[in-house]
Write a structure and sequence with these properties.
By secondary structure, the protein is mainly α. It has helices at about 5-10, 10-35, 55-70, 75-85. It has a domain at about 60-90. The relative contact order is 0.06.
Length: about 90
């Protein structure tokens, strides 16, 4: 048996590993873009748009409110008043 016959015998393993690698990359990309995986590797629950239908607006509003408070655009009193309006008491 010459060297080329030996190499051709293992070619199927290369292609199998390549296909498995591509499939794993696709799965990882789908999970990353759906919001199910983060840099820390922690599953943060449902991705965007998968919350309960009646809570979608409230969670988006709460997120925006939290961001504005963190940036200093709202005082503590304004933040608490707006939380009360949303129904989220802190």
């Amino acid at each position: 048996m010459n060297g080329s016959g030996f190499m051709m015998g293992w070619t199927w393993l290369f292609w199998l590993l390549l296909i498995i690698g591509v499939i794993l990359l696709v799965i990882l990309a789908v999970r990353a873009f759906s919001g199910r995986i983060t840099r820390s590797g922690i599953d943060r629950g449902p991705g965007p748009g998968l919350e309960r239908p009646n809570a979608i607006g409230a969670t988006a509003a709460r997120r925006i409110l939290d961001e504005r408070f963190a940036r200093g655009e709202l005082s503590t009193e304004e933040y608490r008043e707006r939380l009360a309006v949303l129904g989220d008491d802190a």
